[in-house]
Amino acid sequence: MSWLSISPDSDFSIHNLPFGIFSTASQPEPRVGVAIGDQIIDMAFTADMNIFDPFIPYHWRRDVFWQNNLNEFIRMGRPVWQHVRSVLQAELTNPDSVLRQVIEYVLIPQADATMHLPVQIGDYTDFYSSIDHASNVGKMFRDPANALLPNWRHLPVGYHGRASSVVVSGTSIKRPKGQRLPKGDIQPVFETSQRLDFELETAFIVGKDTSLGTSLTTADFDEHVFGMVLLNDWSARDIQQWEYVPLGPFLGKSFGTSISPWVVTMEALAPFRVPGYVQEPAPLTYLEEVSPLPNLDVHLTVSLTPETGGELVISRSNQRYLYWSQAQQLAHHTVNGCNIRVGDLMASGTISGPNRSSWGSLLELSWGGAEPITLASGETRTFLEDGDTVTFRGYAEKDGIRVGFGSVSGQIVS
Ligand code: CA
Fold first, then answer.
1. CATH number for the domain that contains residue 59
2. Of 136, 137, 184, 352, which alpha carbon lies 20 to 30 A from 362's?
């Protein structure tokens, strides 16, 4: 289809065209790029060629691609996102495209680029929307017979996270120090976390501001959400377990959160929509889902690579295991009139499926540390060791069309 050669198993097919921020050694200013195959389209250079001009809305600014984050581009709104996407698809399939004539300037090998945080994140929210994850945690820490707390089936539980410590894939994560309560003691100790974990999540990025006092409905999702990334909500379980009562997660979470560098647009993910859970009891009216296909069929994997090498996939999950849809999360987040802003990051919560092979954290996979897992090297793990690298990958595939996220990874350092 394209005059570019793109491997059929590439996450970054012509159907995807995710946006990110990159720089190169020869041109170190971070700028907007679009991933295609193993290359990056330099959008700053592309816009200077006027290819978007015949159709541009009046408020277009060409320098929107000469930015170190996507916020200005996102702020231009959904018709612009759609327009840029369709122009790129047309140019990449037109054998006479002007892009082809200047290919050495337009295309940058991904291997030569440094990726940066794609958006300036004002606020970061983390939900708790997988019923299997919430049930597993409830069984471990509370009551196996009443794993879900009474509110869980009535609202998408969430908390406000920390935006300043969200980092791009490839950034090392320093093992945090903090308080924990040794088993059976009443006096806490201060030390480095011994129960460091990952949480397999995705997140959506807000694409349109609202004003304080405004509430969105589930029908507003498409206009108000730009795209999605993979997200690792690194978690220090020992710190978390001692501190979380009664206000929820704090320092056990805020030491680092990793996201993948390419923002896959909701437009690109649209063909992979699937039905959601049957919700019992039916949610209150403001949480009613208007879409018959509120979930997404996105395959997710977690792999663990110890410092000695030998990467092993330790979990295979799917975005479709979310009980509460992203549109319901958005409606709930704004139902009290809380305003949201372009670039806000809203994470799913750990996405665990019904089977052990699909659980999205070591807390679950090792059942609270009681049942170690074995790695490719023969080493075992209950929680993460220094030198371990955790990598999430995600992709959707249907009718020969593949749209993927690439990966998010991070190594634990002392
Ligand atoms: Ca989480």
1. 2.30.30.230
2. 184
Domain match, 145 and 28 both? no
Q: Same structural domain for residues 170 and 134?
A: yes
Entry pTM: 0.97
Are 322 and 381 contacting, i.e. CB atoms less than 8 angstroms apart? no
Q: Are residues 326 and 371 in the same domain?
A: yes
Count of Cβ atoms closer than 10 Å to residue 125 Cβ: 19
Q: What is the CATH number of the domain that holds 321?
A: 3.90.850.10
| DSSP letters for 230-287 | EEE--EEHHHHHHH-TTT--STTTTT-EEE-S-BEEHHHHGGGEE--PPPSSPPPGGG
Ligand 1 centre from 221 Cα, in Å? 22
- In angstroms, how far is CA 123 from the centroid of its own chain? 14
Catalytic residue status for 333:
no
C-alpha of residue 280 to centroid of ligand 1, in Å: 23
- Exactly one of 15, 83, 133, 154 is catalytic; which is it? 133
User: What does each C-alpha distance from 365 to 18, 198, 206, 389 come to in angstroms?
Assistant: 32, 11, 32, 17
| H or E stretch covering 20 | strand 19-24
Query: Rounded to the nearest whole angstrom, what is the distance from the C-alpha of residue 152 to the centroid of ligand 1?
Result: 15
Long-range pairs for 177-183 at CB < 8 Å and ≥24 separation?
A: 178/236, 178/238, 178/239, 178/243, 178/251, 178/252, 179/239, 179/242, 179/243, 180/238, 180/239, 180/241, 180/242, 181/241, 181/242
3-class SS at 110?
helix
**What is the pLDDT tens value at each position of the chain, 414 positions in all?**
899 999 999 999 999 999 999 999 999 999 999 999 999 999 988 887 878 875 555 455 568 898 999 999 999 999 999 999 999 999 999 999 999 999 888 999 999 999 999 999 999 999 999 999 999 999 998 889 999 999 999 999 999 999 999 999 999 999 999 999 999 999 999 999 999 999 999 999 999 999 999 999 999 999 999 999 999 999 999 999 999 999 999 999 999 999 999 999 999 999 999 999 999 999 999 999 999 999 999 999 999 999 999 999 999 999 999 999 999 999 999 999 999 999 999 999 999 999 999 999 999 999 999 999 999 989 999 999 999 999 999 999 999 999 999 999 999 999
| Å from CA of 350 to ligand 1 middle | 5
Q: List the domain range (segments joined by +) for residue 44.
A: 19-116
